[in-house]
Design brief:
Elements lengths: L4 H4 L4 H17 L2 E5 L1 H8 L5 E7 L2 H12 L5 E3 L4 E6 L2 E7 L1 E4 L8 E4 L2 H6 L9 E3 L8 E2 L4 H6 L2 E2 L5 H7 L2 H13 L2 E2 L1 H10 L8 H12 L5 H10 L1 H5 L1 H4 L15 H15 L3 H9 L4 H4 L1 E3 L3 E3 L3 H15 L4 H13 L2 H6 L5 H11 L3 H10 L6 H25 L10 H8 L5 H15 L7 H10 L1 H10 L2
Helix pairs in contact: 2-4, 7-9, 8-10, 8-11, 14-15, 14-21, 15-18, 15-21, 17-18, 20-22, 24-26
């Protein structure tokens, strides 16, 4: 079968020009040269092309060097063990590989790579819609190879493997996460045989490095409806192996007529709500883990029912370990911990009369994360009562407006005592030590409580006028 490549990539003149150069280079070298995988799949799905995957039957490393010269770009990044080379070429990332297959051994985190022909390369790919190839050499331009009916599966929106799915997932267990990721990104159905194979082979995910698993999890979270992937992870048995803390949230306990909502399903609803509001990964991760402290803090009281007292503090501590396990950046871990620890505060304020003092304290404690926190808290309203949701959203608007007003009035963006420690020591005749910090805290508390405004002259006068009282309070709190 022949494909009109120029029509397939209509409107993408730079891409077509690049394909012509690559194809001509392949023909000149005597190498079979194909575009494969994601670029072919995305073209048929009408998606924008950012990654250009090229397979050659020959030495991909040498070919990539010559190609980079022809494209007047570089340097080429080579992975000799895998016969792979990366060429940075704006606006595309070009990957050139020698036709190959990869197989993980029983307990290995690194695959064995062998070089092969196109048919075997396609056979060992993950899913049928990624096992399509188009020849781009001038004499063979547009010859289309679809040995496993990838086009058919794209049309019926199903995720299927070229080989027996158990063999496919055994060869590379990360493909189980990729199947779920594609289901979440495309809203496709995983074929029954593949779904059952994931359940059977789930334990093999343990041999894959956490960095690669994390990257697939992030792609699931960044899809338009992450709950699809998160539920599939749970139902296939991958979630308990990758994030047992999330899996532990599933289920409802009932006692003496008291029940509680299923925290797992509440959580994935919150993640979907956040996904509808923002593409910010940190907030989406915060949504996934905001109630992670509930299972270990769950208690039953006969006259009160089920409680989760302190789950926000417990969850923040737990995420320090989880974040390191996922190998997230330290700064991101710190912010997500803050979102988890504070996620109840705006809701509590929104349910009361909003005071400047409460707003000041929340604003200062949240710092630059304040608007990320408010986004998470808006998403955390999952009541099935529309009137209750409407009232909460109205109250949140009031909290947000009050934050802006107080922030502008009190200059809270970089909040700290306007009187410096060395001045306190000079005014009070005291030496460096904890007492100085206690007095600074009293100044900050007075500002947050609205006793004095956040300016230097007023704070200095208040400090001098209340010297004895402040020294006494500071000394007693040490």
């Amino acid at each position: 079968m022949k494909i009109d490549i120029d029509h397939l990539f209509s409107g993408q003149d730079e891409l077509i020009h690049c394909l012509h150069i690559i194809g001509q280079k392949g023909e000149n070298a005597g190498y079979e040269t194909y575009i494969v995988g994601g670029i072919v799949r995305d073209a048929f799905m009408g998606k924008a092309i950012t990654d250009l995957d090229v397979v050659v039957i020959g030495d991909a490393l040498t070919f990539a060097e010559n190609l980079a010269k022809g494209l007047k770009t570089g340097p080429v990044v080579k992975f000799e063990q895998f016969g792979t080379a990366m060429i940075p070429y704006k606006p595309f990332r070009i990957e050139v590989v020698t036709a190959r297959k990869e197989v993980y051994q029983q307990d290995s985190r690194k695959p064995d790579v062998t070089f092969t022909d196109l048919t075997e390369d396609l056979r060992r790919r993950d899913f049928t819609f990624n096992a399509m190839a188009i020849d781009i050499r001038p004499k063979h331009y547009g010859n289309f190879y679809d040995p496993f009916n990838g086009i058919r599966d794209l049309k019926v929106a199903v995720i299927r493997t070229p080989l027996d799915p158990e063999e496919t997932f055994y060869d590379d267990p990360l493909r189980m996460m990729r199947a779920i990721r594609f289901a979440s990104q495309f809203s496709y159905r995983i074929a029954d045989t593949a779904f059952e194979a994931i359940k059977k082979m789930a334990e093999r995910i343990k041999i894959i490095s956490m960095e690669r698993v994390r990257d697939e999890l992030i792609k699931i979270l960044m899809s338009s409806k992450p709950s699809i992937g998160l539920i599939l992870m749970e139902n296939t048995g991958l979630m308990p192996l990758i994030l047992p803390e999330i899996s532990a949230m599933k289920g409802i306990d009932e006692k003496n007529g008291f029940g509680h909502k299923d925290v797992f399903y509440h959580t994935i609803q919150v993640v979907d709500n956040v996904a509808a509001l923002t593409d910010n990964l940190t907030i989406r991760l915060g949504a996934l883990f905001h109630d992670v402290g509930k299972p270990p803090t769950k208690r039953f009281y006969p006259n009160q029912g089920w409680t989760f007292h302190g789950h926000e503090e417990t969850g923040a501590r737990m995420f320090e370990v989880i974040g390191r396990h996922l190998k997230l950046p330290g700064r991101q871990i710190k912010e997500i911990r803050k979102l988890i620890r504070l996620h109840l505060r705006p809701i509590a304020i929104a349910g009361e009369e909003v005071t400047d003092s409460a707003v000041r304290r929340l604003r200062v404690e949240a710092g630059d994360s304040i608007y990320n926190l408010l986004t998470l808290c808006r998403a955390d309203i999952t009541s099935k009562n529309p009137e209750k949701v409407r009232q909460y959203q109205k109250n949140f608007n009031e909290v947000e407006n009050r934050i802006i007003t107080v922030e502008e009035k009190d200059k809270l963006r970089a909040f700290q005592s306007p009187v410096r420690g060395d001045e306190i020591m000079q005014f009070y005749g005291i030496k460096p030590g904890p007492l100085v910090g206690k007095i600074k805290s009293l100044i900050e508390t007075a500002i947050l409580d609205g006793i004095i405004p956040n300016d230097y002259d007023t704070a200095k006068n208040w400090l001098m006028e209340n010297k004895d009282e402040l020294l006494k309070k500071a000394s007693e709190s040490q």
